[in-house]
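Hi V.,

You were right to ask for the full record rather than a summary. Here it is.
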Amino acid sequence: METIYRFLKIPSQSCFLFGPRGTGKSFWIRHSFPEILSIDLLKSDIFQSFVTDPSRLRGLVAANPACRTIVIDEIQKVPALLSEVHSLIEEQKDVRFILTGSSARKLKRTGVDLLAGRAVEKHLHPFMASELGPRFSLDNALQTGLLPVVMAAESPDEVLKTYVSLYIREEVQQEGLARNISGFSRFIEAVSFSHASLLNTANVARECQAERKTVEGYISILEDLLLAFRIPVFTKRAQRATVTHNKFYLFDAGVYRSIRPKGPLDRPAEIDGTALEGMVAQHLRAWTEYAHPDARLYFWRTRSGVEVDFILYGEGVFLALEVKNSAKISPEDLRGLKTFRTDYPDAQIVLLYRGPERIIINEVLCIPAWDFLLNLHPEIPNPSQQTNGG
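Predicted structure:
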């Protein structure tokens, strides 16, 4: 695959760069920084040398004075290195560290202070549609996702099949994050049914035959490995009683499809619909983290069942988005958005659907999902602005 420009901005100071495996962290670093000293802790000999002697980092930095940017891949493998990094940042103001990681769990578990604010935290996500431009196909993305490692593969389906199993073996099993690997594997399948849905841990526990507390721990592992995320319900100045459970999403539509069991009782339209909603979720999450950290992503659902899939709320943005995996729009499809606007008249409301054209129905702007995603760009301060013509 040819080089594709990523929206993640190059930091001027030291930073943690987190992201699931396969999102292109190493590739981004190589193309963003021309001269670097690179330390890959995934290589067993390098890992062992730093586990034995973290102070070895000082000697490497001193021996490479021309390299003022030092990259340490998978920093969570040797958390003790952070003390050396901290000291070097204090002593050498012209040195910048880029510390990559596919998990923050070990750093948090060992109580490591993430450099006391001396390094900013960045995240790299799967591709956004607007990064791909004309290369983007919504139909393809809903099948195999937008992970760079998958899109660059000759057999994307084969890469997806092994993606999660590699995570389980290399992250979960080797790091001892879960004692029962077979139980964790059953949980992965069971929790896939919660994608784009309210997360009820009791139901998931029943499906995978595990204790509720065990399932709660497993969900935390998924989040720390950056494989999943939750969004909370929007309750600001609520005029109606709302639900309390968060909504749950796997981080990439292709990964979701690879995990989700399929059989005679599983309707393809249902899987397609949750994949589309997850695709929108991962784009909105990337949009906020790349350039709009003041904005927050929510959903809205009343206890009577009236729902809006996404609420973007922050300085200069108050947008309600409903996602429908249908080429036709019915009045019922608009009910949640119109109810939300009744309670929040300042909000802009938009429905995303699988039809071919932008159209206003009953005062609701309806946009093809592919159109919205292609025009969602971090330089646009409010996604609703692109709805006025791209």
